[in-house]
Design a protein that fits this description.
Elements (H helix, E strand, L loop, with lengths): L3 E4 L27 E3 L10 E6 L5 H15 L4 E6 L4 H14 L3 E4 L8 H9 L4 E4 L9 H4 L4 E6 L2 H11 L4 E8 L4 H15 L4 E9 L4 H14 L3 E6 L2 H13 L7 E3 L5 H9 L5 E3 L2 H17 L7 E5 L1 E3 L10 H10 L9
Parallel strand pairs: 1-13, 3-4, 3-5, 5-6, 6-7, 7-13, 8-9, 8-10, 10-11
Antiparallel strand pairs: 2-4, 12-14
Helix pairs in contact: 1-10, 1-11, 2-3, 5-6, 7-8, 10-11
């Protein structure tokens, strides 16, 4: 069996799979080293997993959590969540709390993987299997890089596919800009950097640069896109790292009377992005497949910890393109989560 896999099956584009974001259950406030939910956990007969969530208010991360919870429930398992609230010290304390509670496995979405090393080593020394979600950027990782994680699931954001989509839509010629996040989020910085390299490698494309969205929403993106269009009146495309930023860019292009001139793409398949693709506000988004990632993490835990089976150390879930051509086949995240809970969701394989 290959020990590292790129997963492209089960793209959640249609009910035939039987298998953006709706109103999902987030991480509620609690005590014991972080904001927690999920009951007593640890030390009893129930198979219990703890997850340290980097930012519990983030709807995409919430969907990963709920996909994981739903998969664990298929075997009677319980998930305890702890919200690090973007605080690395809190995340360290949360991991230590899970160890003290004696959970059966820990999943971590690291704010900074190297900084968590000592806490993860303590959990490993206590005999608790560790699983990671987006711990490191890039595909070229080894088991040693990921240690002491038993297995790792990464979101593969296809910058090359996004660049190719834009290139095709503008006929291989013209100016292209990007909106990234201003905060130092490694996964997103890597993603936008890969897009920049893809654009700069295309001979007919003049890449005019990336600007950072300070507020991570449409309101923050709007003035950035306004300025980009003012400085580059012949701009042909704007790539945005998330759907709210794409919506803000679309508002700027519409106000400038240039919406038909400018191709606009988002990412994540949040509800505003799905609605935007449907009504033509933006041209495309990419489905992050957050519930799919959560289910995969749960499947890996069940097979490895409960069933004692061999699993790979690194898996990638490739995001799926959504345009007006296939948007009606999109299965909303909350529906996927319910299908996971019912055991009818056909997710990604682990072997």
């Amino acid at each position: 069996m290959k020990l590292t896999q790129k997963l492209t099956k089960g793209l959640a584009l249609g009910a035939a799979a039987a298998l953006s974001v709706g109103m999902l259950v987030g991480c509620s406030s609690g005590t014991s080293g972080g904001s927690e939910s999920g009951g007593e956990g640890g030390g009893g007969d129930t198979f219990t997993v703890g997850i340290s969530v980097a930012a519990g208010q983030n709807s995409t991360l919430q969907a990963i959590v709920e996909g994981l919870r739903a998969e664990l429930e298929t075997v009677g398992g319980e998930l305890i969540t702890a919200d690090a609230q973007l605080d690395i010290d809190k995340q360290i304390a949360d991991i230590d709390t899970f160890v003290n509670r004696g959970v059966d496995a820990i999943v971590v979405q690291p704010l900074d993987f190297p900084t968590l090393s000592s806490a993860l080593q303590r959990a490993d020394a206590a005999g608790i299997p560790l699983f990671g979600n987006d711990a490191l950027v890039g595909s070229d990782v080894t088991a040693e890089d990921l240690a002491p994680l038993r297995s790792h699931v990464r979101t593969a954001r296809p910058a090359d596919e996004i660049a190719a989509f834009i290139d095709e839509r503008i006929g291989g010629q013209g100016k292209v800009g990007a909106i990234g996040i201003a905060a130092p989020v490694a996964q997103l910085q890597f993603f936008v950097g890969e897009f920049e390299k893809e654009m700069e490698s295309r001979p007919g494309i003049d890449f005019v640069g990336t600007v950072g969205n300070q507020s991570d929403d449409a309101a923050g993106a709007r003035p950035l896109a306004d300025a980009m269009l003012t400085q580059n009146p012949d701009l042909r495309a704007i790539f945005a790292y998330n759907d709210p930023s794409a919506i803000g860019a679309a508002a700027a292009a519409t106000a400038a009377g240039k919406r038909d001139q400018v191709v606009i793409t988002g990412f994540n398949a949040s509800q505003d992005g799905i609605d935007g693709v449907r009504d033509g506000t933006i041209d495309a988004t990419w489905d992050y497949r957050a519930p799919d990632e959560g289910q995969l993490l749960g499947h890996l835990i069940i097979e490895s910890v409960l069933n004692g089976k061999e699993i790979g150390y690194h898996y990638e879930v490739v995001s799926a393109k959504l345009t007006q051509d296939n948007i009606d086949q999109f299965v909303p995240w909350e529906e996927r989560i319910e299908q996971i809970r019912q055991g009818t969701f056909v997710g990604v394989p682990i072997d």
